[in-house]
Design a protein that fits this description.
The structure holds 2 protein chains of 2 kinds.
Chain A (H helix, E strand, L loop, with lengths): L1 H48 L12 E5 L2 E10 L2 E12 L4 E9 L4 E9 L13 H4 L27 H33 L1
Antiparallel strand pairs in A: 1-2, 2-3, 3-4, 4-5
Chain B lengths: L2 H6 L15 H6 L4 H24 L9 H23 L1 H7 L10 H9 L6 H31 L1 E2 L2 E2 L14 H18 L6
Antiparallel strand pairs in B: 1-2
Helix pairs in contact in B: 3-4, 3-6, 3-7, 4-5, 4-6
The chains are: A alpha+beta, B mainly alpha.
Chain lengths: 196, 198
Amino acid sequence: MREIIRMIVVLTVISTVCGLVLSGYRRLTAERIEQQVLMNVQGPRVEVVLQGADNDLIADRKKIQINGKDLLVFIGKKKGGPYAVAYETVGKGFGGDIKVMVGYDLDLNTLTGVQIISHKETPGVGSRVEGRQFTRRFRGLHVNTDVPPNQCPEEIDAISGATYSSLGVCEALRKSLALLPKVKKRLQAFEDGSRS
Amino acid sequence: MNLTKEFTKGLWKELPPFRLVLGLCPVLAVTKSAETGLGMGLAVIFVLTCSNVLVSSLRNLIPRKVRIASYIVIIASFVVIVELTTQAFFYGIYERLGIFIPLIVVNCIILGRAEAFASRNKIIPSALDGLGIGVGFTMSLTVLGAIREILGNGTLFGADIMWASFRPFTFMVEAPGAFVSLGILLGLMNALSGPSRA
């Protein structure tokens, strides 16, 4: 009996101490890691999505709250005036979550582009959704395009052999389109606030 | 007790992966270039030394029946520290090593040293043992990575070093190339150290 108690106590203490140390260390590095992901993962993709913007996209990002969740919005400006936004949404692919960055031109009400931030699709099969061949099909799509649940819009052909992965991207697009009015409203409020 | 020997045995006599033939998974997977090999090696040195020290200092406290569980918790914690650190400060390496950083947890060299050495020895010899084995592992990975990178890509640490007309032998940076180069190196080492006593 005493041995069992000793085992439980030792293992509990070790695990607790390790857990505490790790959570502390995580908090310590969280900001740096966020910065690194911004520079290395999101940054380059945003630059593709919002091609033609002449501002520093990473510096001009804004964190807004929608439905109680944080959303990081990148704002593209031309000659100082904001004209485009891009943000990330998640769709379910074949192997897991597909994170997709969608950019919108607010003047033309069209998509400026789509980039895959991360995915867990089968290499060589589902991973083709990352390729330009697929992502460029979204460019120029109107923001009122109808994306039915579990389908891609008519204008987009799914990649043959990678239907689930393609649908995952379209699901992310559907969520993204649904957020757009709220994002616009929230950014408008920011603009008005900064002017007054 | 001969402390220098605890350190130097990891460099040749018990050189992993060639002598102990342990931890082959990362050896095969991350030696596509000298740089990734070195990065992986440094991560392993850190985890191995720290876990050896901690296991050794707790060796009289941990009951035998839960020792493996305790070692794994300790090792996993150091691995997470390495993962967060590389992610925060060396993002390029973090991306290239990918899943193999978390997989250090199940690298048998580390648990092997904790069980076979650190749990039976004092702190300083354990630290030297971890350091020595870690340095040996790093050397092996860097050498293997360098060979594969030079032959398979014509570069070393990313710098062009082969003559202009050199045609890279792509086979070497792919998975089968890892087996072939590991086998040749292993054979060479066996030939160099004479017929095995076994």
